[in-house]
């Protein structure tokens, strides 16, 4: 009897432990559809609210439309009133770096930061062409497109492979500083 009871008990405990661990895993997406964790992982091929661009397509867009707004949403830790990214960051020339605006969940302060800088950069023109990006296999640009659409912007683009794809296309990058957080 002991020979059958112990394995059954062990199997039951193992099943309960696995169920508990699974239940404790955070959801990949928030209830309103933003990617919430594991930002550096494969992304969809397209976005329902934006036209997805390659670096070559972005260059063509820039030649056709002179005032395209480029928005880098790469993360930059905020600690004690300052950004604290330890390494230098580069982005596409003439970009606005809105650090952390691609996070899945934003506090009211960070949402105001993103909204204020977008309004200022577009003169509050909701039809202004905006290209969001981060790096390749990065959900931050995808989230930023979703958030901009929720804010009413309707001429949106997503550079899916971000700075990595841009660099692989032998296009220039420049050192960047994030827009001030006030």
Short descriptors:
about 180 residues, alpha/beta, Oxidized Rhodanese, domain 1, two-stranded antiparallel ribbon
How would you characterize the overall build of this protein?
This protein has 182 residues and is α/β, with parallel strands linked by helices. It has a domain of 125 residues: Rhodanese-like domain (Oxidized Rhodanese, domain 1, 3-Layer(aba) Sandwich), CATH 3.40.250.10. The chain is built from 5 helices and 9 strands, in the order H-E-H-E-E-E-E-E-H-E-H-E-H-E. The chain has a 5-stranded parallel sheet. A two-stranded antiparallel ribbon has the order 3-4. Strands 5-9 form a two-stranded antiparallel ribbon. Strand 7, helix 4 and strand 8 form a beta-alpha-beta unit. The protein is globular, with a radius of gyration of 21 Å. It starts with a helix and ends in a 7-residue tail after the last strand.
Topology:
Layout (H helix, E strand, L loop, with lengths): L1 H23 L26 E3 L1 H10 L4 E4 L5 E2 L2 E2 L6 E2 L3 E3 L10 H15 L7 E4 L5 H12 L5 E4 L2 H7 L5 E2 L7
Parallel strand pairs: 1-8, 2-6, 2-7, 7-8
Antiparallel strand pairs: 3-4, 5-9
């Amino acid at each position: 009897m002991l020979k059958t009871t112990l394995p059954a008990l062990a199997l039951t405990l193992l099943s309960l432990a696995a169920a508990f661990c699974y239940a404790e895993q955070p959801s990949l997406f928030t209830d309103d559809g933003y990617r919430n964790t594991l930002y550096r992982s494969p992304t969809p091929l397209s976005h329902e609210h934006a036209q997805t661009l390659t670096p070559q397509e972005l260059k063509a867009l820039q030649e056709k439309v002179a005032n395209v707004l480029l928005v880098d949403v790469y993360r930059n830790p905020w600690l004690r009133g300052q950004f604290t990214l330890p390494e230098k960051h580069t982005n596409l020339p003439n970009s606005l770096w809105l650090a952390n605006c691609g996070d899945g969940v934003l506090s009211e302060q960070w949402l105001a930061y993103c909204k204020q800088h977008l309004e200022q950069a577009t003169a509050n023109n909701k039809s202004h062409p905006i290209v969001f990006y981060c790096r390749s296999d990065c959900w931050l640009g995808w989230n930023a497109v979703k958030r901009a659409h929720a804010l009413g912007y309707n001429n949106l683009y997503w550079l899916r492979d971000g700075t990595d794809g841009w660099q692989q296309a032998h296009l220039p990058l420049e050192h960047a500083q994030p827009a001030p957080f006030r």
